[in-house]
Specification:
By secondary structure, the protein is mainly α. It is built from 10 helices and no strands. The protein has 2 domains: 50 residues, Arc Repressor Mutant, subunit A; 124 residues, Tetracycline Repressor, domain 2, CATH 1.10.357. Helix content is 70%, strand content 0%.
C-alpha cells in the first residue's frame, strides 16, 4: 500500500509537470498543495513519503536516470563491437518509453544538471569503450569520448523534443544514419 500511494503522488507530480501550462512555467512552480490535490491524498500522507517537493523530484529523477545509467554501465569494450548497438537497441526504446519524464527535466531551467548528467553518463560509456585504442590518429580519446557524448545527447534530445517523436523502430534508422554520415556530406561546403 505504501508503494502504491507513493506512486500515486509521483504520477500526480508528473501529470502536473507534463501539462501544457506547467511546461511553459516549469515544474519548479508546482506546489505540494497542487500535488496533494491531484493525487487526492492528505498533507500528512505526502510528508510520510517525501520530506518535501525536492525529495519527490529527486525520487522521480532516480527512478528514470538510474536505470539509464545502469544500462550504459553494463556495456564495456570487451562485450560490444560497436558502442552504438546498445544505444540503438536499449537506450532509444527506454528513452521513448520515458520521454515525458525526460522532456519535463529537459524543458526546465530550474534543473541545470539534466544535460550534464546525460553527457557525463555517455562520456563515461564512450571513454570505457575507447580505452587505449587509437581511434583517430592525432585525436585524444578523452576529447573524442566527450565529443561523442555531446553529439549523441544532442541527437537524442532533438528527437525527444519533437511533439510526436518517431517510434524507436523508425528513429533507429535515422540515428544510425546520423552517426555514420560525416557532416561535410550533408550538402554543406567544407570550411577551409
Amino acid at each position: 500500500m505504501v508503494r502504491k500511494t507513493e506512486q500515486k503522488i509521483i504520477d500526480a507530480f508528473l501529470n502536473l509537470a507534463a501539462s501544457e501550462t506547467t511546461l511553459t512555467s516549469e515544474y519548479g512552480s508546482i506546489s505540494v498543495k497542487a500535488i496533494i490535490e491531484k493525487a487526492n491524498v492528505s498533507k500528512p500522507t505526502f510528508y510520510s513519503h517525501f520530506k518535501n517537493r525536492n525529495e519527490l523530484i529527486d525520487t522521480v529523477k532516480q527512478n528514470v536516470f538510474v536505470p539509464l545509467f545502469s544500462m550504459l554501465d553494463e556495456h564495456n569494450s570487451a562485450n560490444t563491437l560497436s558502442p552504438f548497438s546498445p544505444i540503438i537497441n536499449e537506450v532509444i526504446p527506454y528513452l521513448f518509453k520515458n520521454r515525458t519524464i525526460f522532456c519535463i527535466f529537459r524543458n526546465s531551467s530550474t534543473d541545470f544538471n539534466y544535460q550534464q548528467s546525460l553527457e557525463n553518463a555517455f562520456f563515461c560509456y564512450f571513454n570505457r569503450f575507447l580505452g587505449t585504442k587509437q581511434v583517430l590518429r592525432g585525436m585524444d580519446n578523452t576529447w573524442l569520448a566527450n565529443y561523442y557524448a555531446k553529439v549523441i545527447v544532442g541527437i537524442l534530445t532533438t528527437w525527444l523534443s519533437d511533439l510526436f517523436p518517431e517510434k524507436p523502430a523508425q528513429f533507429k534508422k535515422k540515428f544510425y544514419f546520423l552517426i555514420n554520415t560525416p557532416l561535410n556530406t550533408w550538402g554543406m561546403s567544407e570550411i577551409s
